[in-house]
## 1
Amino acid sequence: MKKRSQKKLIIGFIVFLLSIVVISGIVIINDESFKRFFITSTMTSKSHKYWARLLYSDEVIEEVMKGNYVEEVEEKVHLEDIVIGKEYNKVENKSKYEKEILTKDKENDLYKIIRIETKKFKGYLTVVYDPSDIELVVSSNLGKKGESVNNLVKNNNGIVGINGGGFEDYSGFENGSLPYGAIIKDAKVIWKGLSGSGELIGFTKENKLYFSKSTPEVAIKEGMVKAIEFGPLLIVNGKASKVHGDGGWGIAPRTAIAQRQDGIVLFLVIEGRLPGYSLGADMNDLIDILLKYGAYNAANLDGGASSTMSIRGKLVNKPSAGGKYGGRMVSNAWIITNKNNKKVTE
């Protein structure tokens, strides 16, 4: 069953890439635009790196990857700039994006879902009004087997959830068992992977989104109580990272997490690898969306087929693979709980 599923996944990805070639009118692999798209999209996927090596030499791949990268803002997060609840209910004289954020759905003080649609991609933005309602959850069999975001939401009394960090892939068909880098939960290091993949992304005990390039032990001393390791960072203290080329991550399904200065947290999931419906986003696209909605700090999370949003144990988005099984298995997820008993529609 695994081999059949893997074959379908590979064939689907090939069809996706060939569709882009046809749509764009690109018929030769030496075209610079196609070269950049193909190499960055395949080299940052978990299962399809070998496709880049079928068409291009290691030297060409290295050259393209060197020219496409994200130059992060080299600043520590200014936690004092985040004032949770500041000007929370004032919507007059605001932009349409601010009004979308601050105008709650009827009978729902917990969260709001905003549909994102452009000519290039579609997705969903979850607005989390109180950051204290956010929890980091991990697979019950961490290190052995992952769980879908659907199950992580259901099994942890969550309401909405998105995937978090990445995981190792030794078999070519992931089961989400071995997380990249470190995981901090309840101010303790519960996982320390063999290979890190960026910076620690998580929350302090004051429920403020925080980033750290230190060891997890140091990050805990700095006040971090829950975090996963991934990246790149997209926005720090209101300043956008500089994206060279497409950032080296290609165009793909994406997941990101952000926080505004008023403490509101944003979960962003972009659908992709679905020709005719949604191609996917690059790092610049994520930054543009999040800035429009007032993000002050933001980071990229694991993307590709892992990009998943679930509400009450049901998929909202269309994953590029594994949708009929409830989504790909992952090692951890960010979820919204209602431990503070807020008013929320069923």
## 2
Amino acid sequence: MNRRKLLKYTGAAGTAMWLNPQLLFAAAAGEMITRMIPSSGEELPMMGLGSSATFSRQAGSGDIGALREVLQTLTENGGTVFDTAPSYGDSEEVAGALVNDLGMQKTIFWATKVNVAPRGGSADPKAARAQIETSFKRIGTPTIDLIQVHNLADIPTQLGVLKELKQEGRVRYIGTTSTNADSYDYLADVMRKEPLDFIGVDYAVDNLESAKTILPLAQERGIAVLVYLPFGRTRLWNRVKGKEVPGWAAEFEASSWAQFFLKFVAAHPAVTAITPATSKPHHMLDNIGGAIGRLPDKATQQRMIEYIDALPMA
């Protein structure tokens, strides 16, 4: 690795002391894989950043220096997709301030959400518009790249509002999300009936439910897919705790468990981008390595599934 590349991959992370040399090698080995948004042909870098969980907790703590470095690590290594929601605590507001302070407004692909419907109830369209206007103020941009209806809540009302905003040119892409397999039948129905640009679903090496019907349907309908929970929150980390990455993972250039899990997800052709949440720059860099270099073929993906399935549940 030459000095220029080394500085690129360590500078945003703050200190090289945090970084495993194998992670640096993986990140410096090539450019991030991109996937096309079917409705437009726009290419997106595959590895993004989510802002729930640890990012949200850090945003609410008032100590946001690490979040600044996480965003820098994302963008300086080819990433653009930042997924957030008004319900993720202070994440949307803090990230908006950081992005504007860092001059990244034209770099970040903003993906946020709308949901003002009570559980199982109806949304007030005025309240939905007000929540979206708050997102515009927090993000500080006249156009938001993507807004999705959070968890399929009152699709007729809230997606209707998003359709209007897209028609007005204020939102570039619209969609909906679900991380609940019990809602997948309804999600599939919405995918067939509505003009969605994106969906957001959960998918992981030990969580294959969305691959049965939702991901193939997204390919069929030309809908981009954001993947959430590629680590099953902490589930996969608990299963591999204390275990080394198998040697055969080198066949698809995975040098860490994060890259093992992320490359499995990235290998599905329906997946457009993955947005694991983190508040640590060195984890962001590790994740980026999951979207660089070779991806596992179908036979290797099956081997990965069987390997993880054989591990005891934590």
## 3
Amino acid sequence: MALPQPDPNLTCLVTGASSGIGAELARGLARRGLGVTLAARREDRLRELAEELAAEHDIRAETISCDVSEIDDRKRMKDEIEERGLTVEVLVNNAGYGSGGAFVELDGDKEAAMIRTNVESVVALTHAFLPAMVERGRGAILNLASLIAFQPVPFQATYGASKAAILAFSEAVHEELRGTGVTITAVCPGPVRTEFGEAGGFGGADDKIPGFVWLEADKVAGDALAGLDKGERVVVPGALNQLAAFSGHYMPRALLLPVVRRIWPVE
């Protein structure tokens, strides 16, 4: 199985762990008895979550304040993990953010910064920890993509492109790793009830997306970890989202884009 047996010297590094899906992924790993290293910019939230997980599951829970978009921060994080005598057996690249609105009206610097966070950091951290996993012949990487990765979405052009890149990257490396004992999985959630939408500038989606479409963060995390444990290439939580992913992947763009523009909650 992709997920390791509990060991005090092994850790699961979870970026963007301070809230939402990242926090639920950390909880899911801790329930399996696995130690976690929680990384994000909001250190106070990380400490609260680490204390919760250590108390409830008797595991080693470490925290590191880190902005994964910064090269120096990423290197420092890796060095600190090694200095604490820990080996990263599972890497969860969850940190990321989005934006909403007509591309021409958005802040260009922030759109470019989104690519650094959503794409560059995933590629860099995967390469930082993957070679050692391959050398050991075991390990697992989970990358947070999105349902939006399966089709371009007007008014979320940069965010959609970043998640499409993560899906393509993960699928390609998954195939490269065949036979190594190491797996990489992309999880592609649809609408999830977290702070993400408001923080990304496209809140108010509740008004346009029916309630039955929404998933809770713990459901997404549970499906993601189950898929990671099986070594699956892609996980799309929820039957409706699986249908949407299929449609987005195979429907001609000339037909798809006008439909998406009308129904998507950002404009």
## 4
Amino acid sequence: MTTGKHDDDRARAEQTAQKQRRLQDEQDRLDSRKGGSSGGGQQDAAQTGAREHPEPPMPGQKLEKPGEESELDPRPQFMAPDYQGSEKLRGMSAIVTGGDSGIGRAVAVLFAREGANVSIIYLNEHEDAKETCRHIEAEGRRAICIPGDVKNPTFCRDAVRQTIEAFGQLDILVNNAAFQEHAASLEDISDERFDETMRTNIYGYFYMARAALPHLKPGSSIINTGSVTGLRGQGELLDYSTTKGAIHAFTMSLASNLAKKEIRVNAVAPGPVWTPLNPADRQPEQLESFGKSAELGRPAQPEELSPAYVFLASPVCSSYITGIVLPVTGTPG
């Protein structure tokens, strides 16, 4: 790829980030007129992990879209220090979209700990992406950071090409990049916002899968990030929930389509997770109760999601699993 093409991808990514911030500002103005909404749930938080995780009330804060993890307080727990790698992904290479922060960062770190080289696809959160790549390299694996907008099919093809050039192969695609902005009413969702959500969350997954497919071999896998909102709906995330339901259907359909090629396709459906996504969406006072309505009474940390992605990516763990949506929601059912 020429330097000019790299610059074009960066410029388009910055334009998308600016548009997302403008959509965020529009919703903030609507919230200020309507008085916003409050969270729910009263139960105490359960500490069920290998180490203690933060619980509500979470500190009220607001991040500017797309959201920098370095600005989030407390910082998300993504290192999974008690997780011991066992070469489940030895000799493989992976792409993780939205890999600069949140779930994507946690997945990238564990993939590296299991032996995979990782390509990080992100919008314009350059410092977050560099930090993720440093953690991958600290695990003894190779990492590259590729900024750009997954709504652009040309960029998706170029990102796959850069990954192949860097690592010589592609074995795992994790579609994880997402745009989310709440709305109290269907009437609040403009055509522009609806288009941004659909194109980022659905088109981006489709474009990345299509670009990756010619390079995937038997035994490779695609993992899509769905959501509990795609399973149960969410009244103030109408467009986002719609995309996540579509991602679940895309996962099952693509799994059927690729079964004869011996490529598995699965999804993980997280519940509330402490990442930049929600502080870049909700008002500070709403964020304080984030995750409290889950049965475990708190939001998950990214390191509590990432082992599920390792499980679904690894042929030694899940060779007979395809077309599933694995809920990791902190709630039964």
